[in-house]
């Protein structure tokens, strides 16, 4: 395995990963190569901001590194794989970020290769992503560990069976949107009670961030943490009762199921 890494695509997710790798020192800027399909201004901007090595043709990209992150949309991925197939070597590890495209579908377009599906989420932009890593059986433990280390540089990463990716999409990939809706609703409620809009967003966002940290760092069950703050006849239990009457938990469960089902359908349609 070489010490370089290549990105096919320079969109928001690729930029988030690159920023995490450079800020952590895991990769030096001269060890990162990027090719951007059909849109060179983005590549130029990335070069100016991070000092990465721009690549202007696909062949050079695959020659520069054994580890290639395919950071393109699903429709683009299925278009480019047949045309880059001729550049692939046995030692290449392909990491696909495309939702809804299975390892089997990638293999059908490239032939047998070392393939890993990765599902990060948008908090990668602030180094707080949660990513799943799903390798095929051709990848070695060392290669999987390298990819885990890469993804841990802009958040957290965990190896998950590809069969569970639909669940990952529901609970993590799409979840930032649910949380944004929740923060917005919290802020709206506070504004209705007289708090300024800016203050309301600050209080709501910090409350969500702090609560997540409590779950992460204490290791306590969320229900136990909830019980710690719900005093008898207090304000919190009144709010929790209102949420339960509105089917809050059932609505969230249904949202996760809906996202998982949609991802499953996307995979079946391709």
TrEMBL record:
<keyword id="KW-0963">Cytoplasm</keyword>
<comment type="similarity">
    <text>Belongs to the pyrroline-5-carboxylate reductase family.</text>
</comment>
<dbReference type="Pfam" id="PF03807">
    <property type="entry name" value="F420_oxidored"/>
</dbReference>
<keyword id="KW-0521">NADP</keyword>
<dbReference type="Pfam" id="PF14748">
    <property type="entry name" value="P5CR_dimer"/>
</dbReference>
<dbReference type="InterPro" id="IPR000304">
    <property type="entry name" value="Pyrroline-COOH_reductase"/>
</dbReference>
<feature type="domain" description="Pyrroline-5-carboxylate reductase catalytic N-terminal">
    <location>
        <begin position="5"/>
        <end position="100"/>
    </location>
</feature>
<feature type="domain" description="Pyrroline-5-carboxylate reductase dimerisation">
    <location>
        <begin position="162"/>
        <end position="266"/>
    </location>
</feature>
<dbReference type="InterPro" id="IPR053790">
    <property type="entry name" value="P5CR-like_CS"/>
</dbReference>
<keyword id="KW-0641">Proline biosynthesis</keyword>
<dbReference type="InterPro" id="IPR008927">
    <property type="entry name" value="6-PGluconate_DH-like_C_sf"/>
</dbReference>
<dbReference type="InterPro" id="IPR029036">
    <property type="entry name" value="P5CR_dimer"/>
</dbReference>
<keyword id="KW-0560">Oxidoreductase</keyword>
<comment type="function">
    <text>Catalyzes the reduction of 1-pyrroline-5-carboxylate (PCA) to L-proline.</text>
</comment>
<dbReference type="InterPro" id="IPR036291">
    <property type="entry name" value="NAD(P)-bd_dom_sf"/>
</dbReference>
<protein>
    <recommendedName>
        <fullName>Pyrroline-5-carboxylate reductase</fullName>
        <ecNumber>1.5.1.2</ecNumber>
    </recommendedName>
</protein>
<keyword id="KW-0028">Amino-acid biosynthesis</keyword>
<comment type="pathway">
    <text>Amino-acid biosynthesis; L-proline biosynthesis; L-proline from L-glutamate 5-semialdehyde: step 1/1.</text>
</comment>
<dbReference type="InterPro" id="IPR028939">
    <property type="entry name" value="P5C_Rdtase_cat_N"/>
</dbReference>
